[in-house]
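Field reference: sequence -> structure
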Amino acid sequence: MILIDPRNERAKSYADALAARLRGTALPGDLRIVVGGDGFLLRAVAEHGVSQLYLGLNAGHLGFLLNDVDEDWDTLAKRIAGGDWREYRFPQIKAEIMRRNGDRSVDAALNDVYLERSTGQTANLAVSIDGTVLERRLVADGLIFATALGSTAYSFSAGGSPVHPEIPVLLATPICPHRPRLPPVVLPATAIAEVEVISPARRPVRAVADGRAVEDVAHVRLSVSEPVVRLAYLPPHDFTKHLVHKILQP
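Structure field:
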């Protein structure tokens, strides 16, 4: 199955070229070929679930989560038909969210979960890690929690360190911290983070998991899952080169 970002004209043309060459080919039933950008891959995972294998083709810009495309469609189709890829498994961040009205929900994110102010008022957040208080009152625009795979996205833009995707970590990166000047923190993947929103009625905060928002948040508990999301990469894909050439030396 080929999943195409409907808002991306280049993705449509890429998918047409590939589909014409794969017509009649028996591909694994759980394979999802995702054509678009990083954001579309995240949406595809959220929509189709973790039981699928995702092979992303970059028709966007950065494409850190995807395979680069050189538009040699005949060769690409032969490689996909022949199963010439390596499968990697990545964890997600599990976010247990309680809203101000008491409603509870659970979401998961491959890249990041962040809390951000919903109005012009700064967010006031109490943050603890494994039961130890990190900050009793962080005054900031928000706070990002990212996986290593997501460390090159919003967390990096906010000043967090990019981390090699194969290192299991949980990153906590403040968004424009005013008081105190809390630096980004790299935590083990076993860490449990809890964030309480101080004065949520006066200073409302929302939680966003890979682009999906929950408003009027009062408390969030975050943890890293076992590796469950399966992504396929075509050789000679190399995460170190990807990190250097796309993030550190763009």
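Note: The mean pLDDT is 95.
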